[in-house]
Amino acid sequence: MLKKIKIIKRQLKKVIKIFYEQHFERIIEINEKYASPRIATSPVVNFALTALKIYLVFIVGLLLYKLITLIY
Amino acid sequence: MKIFSKLYYEYRRIWKIIVLYLIISGPGIVVMVADNDAAGITTYAATGAKFGYNLIWFLLFLVPIAYFVQEMTVRLGVVTKRGHAESVFEAFGSFWGWFSLTNLMVVNWLTLITEFVGMTAALNLFGVPPYITVIGVCILMGIMVLNGRYWTWEKIALTFCALNLIYIPCAFIVNPPISAIINEGFIPNFPGGFNNTVFFFLMANIGTTIAPWMLYFQQSAVVDKGMKEKDIPWGKFDTMVGAILTIVVAIFIVIVAGTVLRGVEFESAAQAAQKLMGMNKYVGSFLAVGLFNAGLLGAICISLASSWAFGEIFGWAHSLNNKIKEAPWFYANYFITLISAGLVVLIPKAPLVLITLLVQVVSAMLLPATLVFLLLLLNDKKSMGEYKNNLFQNIIGISIVALIIVLSTLYAISVIFPNLFN
Q1: What angle separates helix B38-51 from helix B269-279, to the nearest 10 degrees?
Q2: Is A35 an interface residue toward B (CB < 8 Å)?
Q3: Chain B closest CA to A51's CA: distance in Å?
Q4: Is residue B309 packed enough to be buried (19+ CB in 10 Å), middle (13-18) or exposed (0-12)?
Q5: In tens digits, what is the pLDDT along chain B, a chain of 422 residues?
Q6: DSSP assignment, residue B327?
Q7: Residue ranges per domain, chain B?
Q8: Contact between B51 and B191 (Cβ < 8 Å)
Q9: What is the ipTM metric for this complex?
Q10: How would you class B9 by CB atoms within 10 Å of its CB: exposed for 0-12, middle for 13-18, buried for 19 or more?
Q11: What string of DSSP letters covers B48-110?
């Protein structure tokens, strides 16, 4: 039984190692592949993306405020 | 004789159209009906219990809202041959791509937990222990995807969609007053005036109509199905049929709750079903079966939406037409998401209320971004060509997106600060 567990453990470690090796490299590749946006940065696109960033800052700010008021 | 040959010709022509539609149909109906998930059923039942038939007219407005948003994903998927995650990465770069993908992963996983909560609670009413439900659902969903064909998966999913219509006979059993439904339900009115409670329910109903996973799911499904430009009209029709079906089901849930549960307070659809069982055994049982089916449909689509998105970005084989050996990471992602969400429900005293609240908050972060990206992508002449949005589609699209963003944000704020709207 112990031997079987050890074999499973070894196999699991191997799978995790392969996963990390393959996917961390892959993340770097993905970042390089999509480093620059393809869509033309027209004023409309710029405005929409800036508005989105402001919106996200607003929502995260609200969450942080809620968290702080919950703690204190 | 001539009449008979003409009739036969017409019969063959109509039959051909029906067969063609049955081949093309799928993603639109599945995504729309799956939108009536466990949380959706709870929202509609609560709306009926609180306001009776008075807000039925409002639900009718949700048909064009759902249709116009989802129709854009059909065109985008067919023309670019990419899923939504890949489209975002490719068009807006890795920052927005990772933002969308990680948010989608989180919100889908949390939503999947809420689907399991609905399913376990529904079957619990029939004496099925939660762990049996979780194991059974995982096995069933495993069988569905491991047959190695998108077509088979889709037709099984469509069968579950048909089961979602269970609320229609349910409404006939409770024998609602038709004149009251017409007078109260189809003439626009706000019961007790436009107050905070009405506003909260309107926001909740809109919030359940469009969820981020729906956009990712339908676009990826359209690509996996291999739809071509010539299929776009059928894809649109499929989406319209789905949008109508989902709202018809929602209306019947409101009618059932408005007839038998008016004024009754409950926190979940399972609780509503339990109360109904005390009044009418069959209606209560139907509601519980419907709730289980709704959770199952939601789980089927949500777990696939995540796996497709990851497959697209990491370059894994990510089609339901692939066998498990050909797409191991795609299926691993599917099962890890599914099983881990199921296990959370089995943890004693798991913070399920907190998880439900988190779903709203994370959705509020992802939904505006997803909708804005969708509109920008649909206006990109370079990739969309003749299928880009025209002026009419842009006016409708921008109006709907603005409305959804404002209302879903207010809904999320009301979830974070519950006393703000009281």
Answers
A1: 60
A2: yes
A3: 10
A4: buried
A5: 678 888 888 888 888 877 777 776 778 888 888 888 888 888 888 888 888 888 899 999 889 989 998 999 999 999 999 888 889 999 898 899 998 888 888 888 988 998 898 899 889 888 899 999 999 999 999 888 887 688 888 888 888 888 888 888 888 888 888 888 888 888 888 887 777 788 888 888 887 888 888 899 899 889 888 888 888 998 899 899 999 999 999 999 999 988 888 877 777 777 778 887 777 788 888 888 988 998 998 898 888 888 888 888 888 888 888 888 888 888 998 999 999 999 988 888 777 777 777 777 777 777 888 889 999 999 988 888 899 989 999 999 899 888 888 887 887 788 777 777 66
A6: S
A7: 33-416
A8: yes
A9: 0.77
A10: exposed
A11: HHHHTTTTHHHHHHHHHHHHHHHHHHHHHHHHH---HHHHHHHHHHHHHHHHHHHHHHHHHHH
Answer whether A69 touches B (CB < 8 Å): no
Q: Look up the pTM and report it.
A: 0.86
Whether chain A has a CB inside 8 Å of the CB on B382: the answer is yes
Residues of B in contact with A34 (CB under 8 A): 89-90, 93-94, 97
- CATH number of the structural domain B33-416: 1.20.1740.10
